[in-house]
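Collaborator request, handled under Task 6.
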Amino acid sequence: MSIVTVHVACSSTTARSERRFDKGLLISELKGKLEMIIGASAGHMTLKLQDHNGADICEMADNDKMLGAYPVEDFMTIYVVDANPHSTASQFEDLSLVDKMEMPDEEYNKLSFTVRAYKERNKMGRFNPEIKAKMEETAAQKEVEGEEEAKSMSIGDRCEVTVGGVKRGEIMYIGKPEFQKGWWIGVKYDEPLGKNDGSVQGVRYFQCPPKYGAFVRPANVKVGDYPEEDLDFSSDDEM
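Structure tokens returned to the collaborator:
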């Protein structure tokens, strides 16, 4: 039998991995290997074969069949449905359950055996004067990035956005938001091609329907006579 490379995913954890299996493996043997990979109990597994877009193809329910008996191809996904109500697999991803040692910065800075102290002694990374100066220069440039272009625009201007494809809309916000340094333009698109409703990380900058709003750098915005494009669904072949 040949070897097939597949993605492995599970309903009880967000972890994914890429694995190679022999198509001659029985499904019961495959479940045993998957138990070691994802932590779910083989006895509570239901295996689904999914295509490259994540759509279900079939359920691999017969433990006595070989993997190759199913239409599995390279880079498809074997999705494990974990039906164990007492599954603990997801607990290993919850960092809130991990005991952590917390220490104020003032106390941490007094220690001489930390990574920070080592870097500071050896002037590495941000403790290197040249690198620190360059970081400060880059941060200063970010603060004024796009300012000239942004100040040439006005709220209400029609525009065309050239990042992620060409999209038209109306400028709703011009400024320096909290979520990133520098100048940004808030645009309400004519169609639901955006990423938000005018708010980012809980801060509202303008109002628009969900998926109509986006924030882009001024360099990617062209202001001009860009009327809304009419969608003509009429056809001579259909009335």
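The cover message to the collaborator said: "Residues 129-144 form the longest helix (16 residues). The CA atoms of residues 110 and 117 lie 9 Å apart. Please let us know whether this matches your experimental observations."
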